[in-house]
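note to self — DONT lose this again. spent like an hour looking for the file last time. sequence + predicted structure for the chain T wanted, 442 res
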Amino acid sequence: MATILVVDDDGQAIEASARLISQAGHVADFLLESGMLLDKLAASRPDLLLLDVNMPEVDGITLLKKIKAIPEWKNMPVIMITGETEESLVQECFQLGAVDFVNKPIRPLELISRIRIALETQAYIDALHARTNELQRAHSFIAAILDSMEDAICVIDRRTLTMLEANRVFLEHMGRGRDEVLGKKCRDLLAQTSHSCLHCTGANPEECILQETLETGNATFREVSCRSPDGEPLHSKVYTFPIHDAEGLPERVVCLERDITKTRELEDRLKHLAFHDPLTALPNRQLFDDRLRQALAQGRRHNRMVGVMLFDLDHFKEINDTLGHAAGDQLLKEVARRLGSCIRESDTVARLGGDEFTAVLTNVSDAEQVRKVARKILKALERKVVLDAAKVAITSSIGVSLYPVDGDGMENLLEKADQALYRAKNAGRNNVQFFSPVAVRK
């Protein structure tokens, strides 16, 4: 049972954390006034410190620096807690000596797991400094703990760069037995695998993940990516923690690798869903607006024209009414595919909703270039589409505005393209119209 001190200016957060700590079988202590932390530690030393980053009196980063500057507190495990997720903040915390990082809002299972890992890792580090006659017993105990963890962990000697210890998960990742790993130089071992540290054996050995910890004696972390033997992308976070000798030099380094492949894949999927139309996979209005702003900024910088197109499908409602919405969705997917084949990679086609699409053409030399693209789109859409065994002809009406001829703002250009689209529909559909101030006055 460990004593865990929670430092936070939020009483509700302290209460929630204390409840979880008690449920995990530990003793919870708390402190609301961060400025009193050093006095608190002088009176009683906890086994683990949960330290909030953002506090009005004294912030967590400042307190972490002060704690690690005092020799008797230097090895106290500290887990930082914050609602911020900037990589620079996480990097700074690990460099200052924090052992882990938990984001708010706190997830109970995650907090308990991080506390468990921090306490077990600290127990491991302490055991390595125990007396010689206790080393074997401590080693067996720690090996059992390491093998129970889900992260890959190894311990590397600073001077020889040989593997001193490795847990079950690390050995499984390497595809080797304990006897094949311990005593081997990490670079020689990793060079024979597709492990994420493989790049350190290449042309730039100074990029080794261990380098910063070996040179500075500070804990650090890095996200690394590689591919499995099957070619699948793998992503992980690698943390390095120094074990200091009597002179304060790092004599060993503990490396912990956490697989974040599924997390990264989920983040990528969520990011794609946030900025793309779920039916056609084209950019949605939000992403299109961003691309249009970038195109206009580039046009101003390089004194080039930008073309803005708005178009919808002629009589699309009749297809939905006669063949059903499933057929209509199938048609929209095919239209999206054809539109994408008509533009350059530097241009963007997006779906605004229903049968309404839009496009931005960058680095345009003149209006005729935009007209050619519009005609190409009309011709591409002329080919009939087979829907439910029926061949369906589809056409589109297109309205165009040009930067800087018709305006220099995003909303202004879209509004004028919309006016041109209205003219295209009134002109019998299946045609392209450019914005004309004369036509608007009429």
